[in-house]
Amino acid sequence: TEDFITACSNGDAWKVRRFLEQSDPTNIIEPDTGQNCIHIAAAHGAVDVVDILLEDGRTDVIARDNYNRLPSELAGTVARDFRLCEHLAMAEAKAKADGGLFPPTL
């Protein structure tokens, strides 16, 4: 839903947790960009939200957006948060090694 996407972009960890408890909105795609919630949180440098989504394990961390970007790339190039970029790159690598299965265990 739009409210979930907004909570991810605003870094509202409390709201994100509530949404995850009530439903599975994790792989809703924003149609204009092709981004899911972890792309959006990464682009906004929302570290707490990214951690919640990774912990939850239902988000496709190796999905690419309409511009062929991974969440780690958005963390580095848009948010300019290189620690978050590295953290996401490790989760992406683990998910790929596990055949794309979630959750990626770090």
Topology summary:
Blueprint: H1 2-10, H2 13-22, H3 37-43, H4 47-56, H5 71-77, H6 82-97
Helix pairs in contact: 1-3, 2-4, 3-4, 3-5, 5-6
Short description:
With 106 residues, the protein is mainly alpha-helical. Helix content is 56%, strand content 0%. The longest helix has 16 residues, at 82-97.
Specify the biggest β-sheet: none
State the helicity in percent bands.
55-70%
**Low-confidence runs:** none
Percentage of β-strand residues: under 5%
> What class do helices, strands and sheet pairing give?
mainly alpha
Count up the helices.
6
Question: What features would you highlight for this structure?
Answer:
single chain; 106 residues; 6 helices
Walk me through the structure.
This protein is mostly helical and 106 residues long. The chain contains 6 helices and no strands. The mean pLDDT is 92. Helix 2 runs parallel beside helix 4 (47-56). Helices cover 56% and strands 0% of the residues. The chain is globular.
